[in-house]
Amino acid sequence: MAEEAPSKRPLKIIAGADSFGCSLKDALVSHLRSLNIDVEDLGTSSYYSVAADVGSRVSSSTSDSEEIRGLVACGTGVGVSIFANKFPGVFAATCLTPSDAQNARSINNSNVLAVSGMSTSPDSAIEILDTWLNTPFKSPCPASDSKPWPAEIESFLDNSIQEMPKIGGANKIVDSEEASCAICCLVKNRELNPIDIIPGGSMKILRETPTSAIVRFKAGSVEPAHHHTFGHDLVVLWGKKSVWNLTKEKRFDLTGGDYLFTPAGDVHRVKYYEDTEFLITWDGHWDMFFDEDLEAAKKAVQQDLEKGSE
Q: Measuring CA to CA, which of 67, 94, 140, 286 is 20 to 30 A from 302?
């Protein structure tokens, strides 16, 4: 069993998760307590609300007697990281491997660990957590080829500790009741690029490998039946849509805050009832294989909606 991380001050962890990360969070909280590390568990809520709660607590900590860090979990580990990082002085990192955790602590002085409840086992997550706890800032890591950083890099990292917390410092720190408005800020002033192969759609890549993107569709748009070689997770930020998974013969009606995972190869068709925006994540190169044309898709959607209204 790993020992408690060395620290000049006693360590306290603020933890929280959404429903897709709660089981993993619970396992990690139990592990932390077995190390005699103080944990305040905020429980389970939507990924953006609980991440905002944890981020706000870490950001506003002024204690000289203890070091406050955060632990957040959701399906992918990406969403909670995005919203925890809305707060000045918070350096949340999504870590899928111990190497990720080591780099995040050594280079970025990460003070919030974000983990994936859908792709990380409890044993692997514990290894990631222990690495994150026990890696000091500026220590050798995979990014430094496991060697001490050169003097010029050490100097840069030292300066970053002073400069990073100033970024976003003028922004208002919202409390948990206001946190949902952070969704509106996620792509504010962000230009999305049209999706040429589907009328009414536009997309902006946020991160590569694993990839996440913001996608927007105009009301009335239809995605013809199609499939991908990868599975993908999505969370609706606002709007209203239906997804017909033709492979599983199921229909999913989604609105703001709803989550859906579509496995690789599953053929699905989509209808947008309102202007809609969503976050989508996947692992691998983007591809899209159509199984019908647009007119056939519109006809099929209309028939299903008419059948449902009878």
A: 286
Strand ordering across the sheet containing 67-74: 38-44, 11-17, 67-74, 112-116, 92-94
Banded model confidence at residue 5, pLDDT cuts 50, 70, 90 = very low
Q: Rounded CA gap, 207 and 224, in Å? A: 26
Q: Could you give the 3-state DSSP secondary structure of residue 114?
A: strand
Write the CB contacts of 174 (distance below 8 Å, at least 6 apart in sequence): 52, 56, 181, 182
Q: Is 130 helix (H, G, I), strand (E, B) or coil?
A: helix
| DSSP category for residue 232 | E
Report the C-alpha gap between 243 and 245 in whole angstroms. Answer: 6
CA atoms within 13 A on the CB side of 184: 4
Burial 93-113 (b: 16+ CB within 10 A, else e): bbbbebebbbbbbbbebbbbb
Whole-angstrom distance, CA of residue 114 vs CA of residue 81: 6
Residues 188 and 237 sit within 8 Å (Cβ to Cβ): no
CA–CA dist 261, 238 (Å, integer)? 17
- The CA distance from 130 to 38, in Å, is 15
Other C-beta atoms lying within 10 Å of the C-beta of residue 222? 22
In the block, tokens 């899928």 appear at 96
E strand spans, the chain: 11-17, 38-44, 67-74, 92-94, 112-116, 193-194, 201-207, 211-217, 222-227, 232-238, 240-245, 250-255, 259-262, 268-272, 276-282, 289-290
Interacting residues of 178 by C-beta distance below 8 A, sequence separation 6+: none
The Cβ of residue 149 has, within 10 Å, a number of other Cβ atoms equal to 18
Predicted confidence (pLDDT) per residue in 217-261, tens digit: 888 999 999 999 989 899 998 899 999 999 999 999 999 888 999
